């Protein structure tokens, strides 16, 4: 047997065992690597300021933990406590109000009114309360799993910043990728990921803060519901409606029509129209102009659908994975186009 064949067999076997060894952490490593790529420019500025790669990596990791994972952990902890102390009378009042509202609604026909009324009546508040308690236990286990995964992502994120450039240079040397091709792939994925990450972070923070300020004046936990609205706003199409519709219905069930109308109009006009329609594109355009290169400018619609596809396929982390996969694929197509154009030019010259 040739030495090359033996080496190939040993390499394949070692790759297989490496996969088995690190498979529980592959998703965490991938997410951490993509987040490190997204925030590389920020870490580079920290390095220029501190003069130390270690200090810059540590500060960047601390900022990531505080800005991204701390709000998620706070939300999961609070929602678990809330569900454990869920008051069934609250749900009963909302259900009774909806029944009364449907009965008084003039636009419904008798058949439609009966169907909707029966649909609402089929949900027993006591049964829903039991489910809420069961969900509390489920969310509690999810919270514990999230804390574990978040910790691993933070650890890998730190090492990705600390050793990322050396590892990238090593892999480029191993696969013998031409410098121009490596630069294209790197800049394409890096710029798209940076645009997606910073635009998601800033718009979610802006819309969450606007909603949190509004509901805090109504006596609710503005921080909790602001965080919840910020993450809900990341869901395309439906977005903030997952928050303001239940709020309005709850206020209506309490008989506070003014607060219900206020939160509905405020969310639609201030957040959906002004913030989402006018301010959000300005934020994205500003980030795009600062971070994009001429090569890496991509249609925003492609990124939008990449986020939707990512959320559908991979869940929460799909908003990071979807654009990364799409950007890498588009970069490979661009690279292939360049290779074909170069081959055509050489063929014509001959």
From TrEMBL:
Keywords: Membrane, Transmembrane, Transmembrane helix. The keyword Membrane applies. Pfam families: AI-2E_transport (PF01594). It comes from the Bacteria. The chain crosses the membrane at residues 7-34, 54-77, 132-160, 195-215, 222-245, 257-279, 300-333. It is a multi-pass membrane protein. This is AI-2E family transporter. Coiled coil: none annotated. It is found in: Membrane. Its main location: membrane. Belongs to the autoinducer-2 exporter (AI-2E) (TC 2.A.86) family. It comes from Sulfurimonas diazotrophicus.
